[in-house]
Amino acid sequence: MGVAVSSSDIPLPDKPQKIFDREAEWQALAEFACDSRAEARLGVVSGRLRQGKTYLLEALTGALGGFYFGAQQGTETESLSRLADELARHTNPSSPRHWHDWEDAVADLLALGDRRPVPIVVDEFPDLVRQSPSLPSVLHSAFRRHDGGRPGKARLLLGGSSLPLMHRLFSTASPLRELSDLHLTVGPLDFRQAARFWEADDPGLAVLVHAVVGGTIAYRRDYAGDDVPAGRDDFDAWVCRAVLNPGRPLFREPYHLIQEEIDHKDRPLCHSALSAVASGCSTQGQVADCLGAPLTDTARCIALLRENGLLQSEEDAFRPNLIRLRVAEPLLAFEHVAVRPLRSALEQRDAVSVWKQARPVFDSVVARSHFARICRDWAVRFAGPDVFGARPTSATHGSLPDPAFPHGADMAADVVVRGHGGARNGTLLSVGLARWDEFMDLDQLQRLRHLLDVLADRGEDVTHTRPACYSGTGFSPALRAAEARGQVILVDLDRLYGHA
Questions:
Q1: Cβ contact 236:355 at 8 Å
Q2: Does residue 292 lie within any of the structural domains?
Q3: pLDDT digit string (tens) for 348-375?
Q4: What is the DSSP letter of 403?
Q5: Whole-number Cα distances in Å, 45 to 30, 54, 86, 158, 177
Q6: Does the model's pTM come out above 0.85?
Q7: Would you say residue 234 lies in a domain?
Q8: Which residues pair with 180 in a beta bridge?
Q9: Across the beta sheet with 67-70, what order do the strands follow?
């Protein structure tokens, strides 16, 4: 078996073949676990449920002979007893230890690294903190008991999927923050990785699948029964048999996500808020108007969803005081726009007829907005500096009032790319329109030129700004000719997915 070598000359284990991708995450974990410095080290691994965090940590301890403990909700006494039993099985003593408190337990855990670097994983650490609020202080004392850090080579990794509590435990104001050498977040696969994971060689199919299940690792094998669509012609049938099938876990997963993250009293409003945002309400005020709820209640609900990683917010590219919202998890957007209005029908009718009714909404709202999101991700992650003339640092949605129509709709750009300086003050590299189901022509290029004129009148430097059109359908010969003259950037599905 081949190995990589860390800076400490300790061989790093190969990533197990059963783990899809995650090269950077595995490298970071392996380097941390094999660090040969003669003092205990602390690492933090966070990420929402279903992203494969536990899978990675279990594989790491398996590859290096480490110790893994998955915490559960319960009492302090029960957790200490479970931990003692599992540690006994790992070290093979004649009988488990009987600890009186966490001080003894932490001391025994760190003692595993007295002779060699060894990964010691305590997963779902927030569950233990809820039972034992003093545990962070116990850890801090254990690591600081000796000047220069605790002797030994224990590599303690604390994992957690409760994002709000993980943030509080390891924020810059936390005493544990200064002790930790590794802060790793395990997120969803990007759209290109997800296409490979779902074996979607057709980029059009890849967009549709990603608009339903996103890049969440667990959804393929554990929730869809390893059922992948055979091709674009099989997409509708796949949705019916894998996503809208009451016998598959994906059917109830959107509700489980809310139940696991949100307190009971806030769930109804949070479901309604997700429906509003996924349907196009992109500001807090718009959501409140849509729900007919007080702005204070709406603000609390949105803050709760953002804190748990279910909603994301970003500044408008042209109006930095305007904060736009979007649903972070594609399955939640799919559910709340296309499926939730028809949930009762699914109880009475077959999935095929219900999906036939829901499909137009999916195409016009879910897939269309999701395609724009993929285009923004492409601009930042995969478009090199040669595409826009400099390296992109942000890609966001932007809108402005049209001075030609003072009482009309705003002018909007789906993909506003900025360089050095970020989303607010960065160099404006490109403004673009994204159309999932629209064949694009010179009309779209003319709209972009008009937008650039308005931006120039407002004082924005557009000297080197490049118009861009992103389409899931295609471009007219006239627009291709404009591309050949260097007047516009054209991005189709093959380019998005690296096939061209």
A1: yes
A2: no
A3: 889 999 999 999 999 999 999 999 999 9
A4: T
A5: 13, 9, 21, 6, 13
A6: yes
A7: no
A8: 42
A9: 67-70, 118-123, 154-160, 41-46, 180-185
